[in-house]
Write a structure and sequence with these properties.
The protein has 15 helices and 8 strands. With 482 residues, it is of the alpha+beta class.
Length: 482
């Protein structure tokens, strides 16, 4: 189905109300204050994200600190978590929840304070993305293209164009992603075209179809890649522009609410100011960033499995005749399973934050050399290899240190994925060891955790990530991109 006019993100934003944000508190695992053992969630599955208020001095309450950001968004995340099962069962797209996140400034987390954003570090952003995924992993993934776009903007040199984007994003604008096509054999094969118009205003025309347009159903702008005069470029167009059709046809068995459907562009007018060329030799952390968002979603799934395991066991009075205690909550074997699931969640979150630290280090070097390091394009996170030749990793020059840091960060992200894939899938499976047949009741929707984790993990097969890490360790360099 196409997105109806009355469901546009701008309409939802104007009419929507925050999702129980005013009266609910939550722990890191997404429990509301009325949920049993809410405080224990901090030690069990949320400690990594909860400790360490970056940038806070003694006696201060820095609004951009990790603790302040978590306190700001946890009530909203709790409301999102409360409706997750109903949305899953009804397949209700989370327009209202996305609108509430926009209103709360979630999309402006990385926008510098001087533009109206929070100025969050990458570690802080990924802590919040993991918590959001604990509430509903669909929400974290559908913001992926938006935050990658912001990262691209932050690497651009100061300009009026960049300033306008940052101010608009701080005001609530959301960017969706539309890059992938089914026209060739890989992501590099792009047929969507930008052509000159006959008019005198210099406008371009965009025509083509994109698939897996994650987040675009909810977005105000859509960014992607196209070919112009044989050259790969990035573009951005308004989601409601004439000739843009967003179709809700994503039918995966997991992550069903990410809006990852088809987007058709038919003679869409594009402002040349929103078109940028790619530079495949420029080092950029954005590809690693793009992948780490998915890893954060996996970590959130594991945390949700731990939360739901504890919530299932606590009130349960029925047990097996072979159990060692009358009540499951007192059964040491049941408690062992819950503890193991929580440990898997802890490990998954820990590797996300470790990889985020590596990306932060790379960004610091990229920004330190604005003349030699420049992201190519302000498109959908703009991995240069999307429709161009692979970057020359042997290049040297003033950006050598930054390039090395980017490579190390991508290896860290790959390693994090290897851990998070295994831990999230195991957590989502072991969850069922504590409940018997009643845990499979459709009304509980506990199966969504495995389906979501498996779908997220399938985006980038772990076997290729393992090979890449192995090549790095054995040869001391990134493997060549075919």
């Amino acid at each position: 189905m196409s997105v109806a006019a009355d469901r546009e993100p701008s309409t939802a934003r104007a009419e929507g109300t925050p999702v129980r944000a005013e009266a609910t508190t939550a722990g890191p695992a997404g429990r509301t204050s009325g949920t049993p053992h809410a405080d224990r969630a901090v030690g069990a599955v949320g400690a990594v994200g909860a400790v360490g208020a970056v940038g806070r001095g003694p006696g201060t309450a820095d609004p951009s600190s990790t603790a302040a950001l978590l306190d700001r968004f946890r009530p909203l995340f709790a409301g999102i978590a409360e409706g997750a099962v109903d949305r899953e069962q009804q397949r209700r797209l989370p327009f209202r929840e996305v609108a509430a996140l926009k209103e709360a400034g979630f999309g402006a987390l990385r926008v510098p304070v001087e533009y109206g954003g929070s100025g969050a570090a990458l570690r802080q952003l990924f802590s919040l993305l993991t918590e959001l995924a604990t509430a509903d992993s669909n929400l974290t993934q559908l913001w992926r293209g938006h935050f990658a776009y912001v990262e691209g903007l932050l690497l651009q040199p100061p300009s009026a164009h960049r300033d306008r984007w940052l101010f608009d994003i701080a005001a609530g604008a959301m960017i969706g992603n539309a890059s992938s096509e089914l026209t060739g054999t890989s992501l590099r094969d792009i047929r969507t075209a930008l052509t000159e118009t006959d008019g005198r205003d210099g406008a371009l025309t965009l025509t083509g179809s994109k698939y897996y347009s994650t987040g675009s159903l909810y977005a105000d702008w859509i960014a992607g890649s196209a070919v112009r005069d044989g050259e790969c470029v990035g573009y951005a167009v308004r989601a409601t522009a004439a000739g843009v059709e967003r179709v809700d046809d994503w039918d995966g068995f997991g992550q069903r609410l990410t809006g990852s459907g088809t987007t058709h562009f038919t003679d869409v007018r594009v402002d040349p100011a929103h078109v940028r060329t790619y530079s495949p030799d420029a080092p950029s952390h954005v590809h690693g960033f793009f992948q780490l968002v998915l890893v954060a979603a996996l970590a959130g799934v594991a945390r949700a499995a731990a939360r739901d395991a504890a919530d299932f066991v606590l009130p349960r009075t029925r047990s097996y005749i072979t159990a060692t205690t009358a009540l499951p909550r007192e059964d040491p074997q049941v408690l062992q399973v819950v503890g193991e699931v929580a440990g898997r969640a802890f490990a998954a979150e820990a590797v996300v934050l470790a990889a985020a630290d590596a990306l932060d280090a790379a960004v610091g070097l990229l920004r330190a050399d604005p003349a030699g390091v420049r992201l190519a394009g302000d498109g959908p996170g703009t991995r240069p290899a999307t429709c161009t030749a692979a970057a020359d990793r042997s290049a040297t020059g003033p950006d050598t240190a930054a390039r090395a840091a980017v490579d190390a960060a991508e290896v860290a992200v790959n390693q994090a994925q290897l851990v998070a894939v295994e831990q999230s899938l195991r957590a989502a499976t072991d969850l069922f060891e504590i409940g018997g047949a009643s845990a499979t009741e459709a009304g509980r929707a506990l199966d969504r955790h495995w389906r979501n984790a498996r779908t997220i993990a399938s985006h980038n097969p772990a076997v290729y990530k393992a090979r890449s890490v192995g090549h790095w360790l054995v040869h001391g360099e990134r493997e060549p991109v075919p």
